[in-house]
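Workshop exercise sheet. Pairs work together: one partner reads the sequence aloud, the other fills in the structure field after running the prediction. Swap roles for the next sheet.
Pair: D.N. / O.F.
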Amino acid sequence: MNKKKRNRRHGPFFRYIYAVPANTRTLLRLARRKNPELRKMLATVDMDSLELIPGSFSSVKEWGQSDLAFKARIKGGPEIFVGILLEHKSYRESDVLSQIYRYTFEVMQNKGATDFGWLPTKAIIIYNGRSGWDPLVEFRTKCRGAFNGRELPFECVLVNLADIPDEACLREPNVEAAVGVLVMKHAFDADGLRSIVCGLTRMLSHLENGARATLAEKIVVYFQKTLRLGNGNASIPAALGLKVFRRVPR
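Structure field:
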């Protein structure tokens, strides 16, 4: 199965959760606690002004041009906007930086501008793969010479969800955003998932019935597509205890 097809399995869940600006704010707040590069990137950004760029992932159907694109104001001073691009990867992709470079022109447009129509882009790669990966290190090691020692023509930071502590997510009041992190972080790790399933159940219990049922259904579908236990014949949701995530009668 090629990488584009495999990424279709993960992208819809990621976009369902983090197309909501409040959820993206929470994701990045959790991530930057242990990511100094992300803290530096976002230090001047007014995250409360985060606004989804509509249609940024719709033109190529299921996986789109990019995962999610936002614009936000710079703190203080005149009204200046920057673009925040979230590019989610569950597998290593050697051309991810080339993809982002293309998105900076195809997606990151300030349609309200009358003179300069592109948004200076801050790209964040959200990674939840099976093993460690940092395409920025690979670029600096192998390809930097092609840029005469300079950096990329856009800001870029990697966020590995493995670096976000489970405990921080389990304490997070924004349940939907935190559950998204936990689900994707443990998507390939049955033992890790079992260790937090009770916590996930408690978190989901704080949601209103309809929101809980919808999110639970998304989780079950996601696990069925990403995780295989035993000989593959058992019900994955049941094996993980996800049968507790059922719609509660009103």
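Discussion prompt: Residues 1-8, 58-65, 229-236, 243-250 have pLDDT under 50 and may be disordered. What would you look at next?
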